[in-house]
Amino acid sequence: MKRKASAVWQGGLQNGKGSISTDSGVLKDTQYSFATRFADGIGTNPEELIAAAHAGCFSMALSAELGKAGITPERIGTTATVMLDKDGGGFSITAVHLDVAVKIPGGDKAAFDKATADAKAGCPVSKVLNATITMDAKLET
């Protein structure tokens, strides 16, 4: 399986602009710029897209891990926060924090804890990131 996205950048770093598109068409010429990455400009940025990918991947991985334990969650909500820090002459994504809230009526806390740990380790996006990944997971019964 292969998935593709593309980006076009025009101009210098601080005054240039770019657009990002995905083969699925969900993103089509979606604007990004220095301001959307390092300030509060309108548009997206690579770190926001990584956060979205990690939140979505983790939620699906957790659903799969819970399914292995015979548990079907009512709802999994995941927020991923990506930290971009100055690193020598450039920047690095140094950490991702996952805030997870899962509703499982009558949920088993031990099974939940195992599933969240396994999902964090096994999520393909977690595996590709060279960053510290932390997590706070709440079970709502």
Please name the defining characteristics of this protein:
alpha+beta; GMP Synthetase, Chain A, domain 3; 3-stranded antiparallel beta sheet; 3-stranded mixed beta sheet; 37% strand; elongated; Osmotically inducible protein OsmC; Peroxiredoxin_OsmC; KH_dom-like_a/b; peroxidase activity
Describe this structure in words.
The protein has helices spanning 34-38, 46-68, 109-122, 124-128; strands at 5-10, 17-22, 30-33, 75-87, 90-103, 132-140. It is an alpha+beta fold and 141 residues long. The protein has 2 domains: 5-38, no CATH class; 46-140, 2-Layer Sandwich (GMP Synthetase, Chain A, domain 3). A hairpin with a 2-residue loop joins β4 and β5 (90-103). The longest helix has 23 residues, at 46-68. The radius of gyration is 18 Å and the shape is elongated. GO terms for molecular function: peroxidase activity. InterPro entries: KH_dom-like_a/b, OsmC/Ohr_fam, OsmC/Ohrsf, OsmC_Ohr_Peroxiredoxin, Peroxiredoxin_OsmC. This is Osmotically inducible protein OsmC. One of its GO terms (biological process) is response to oxidative stress.
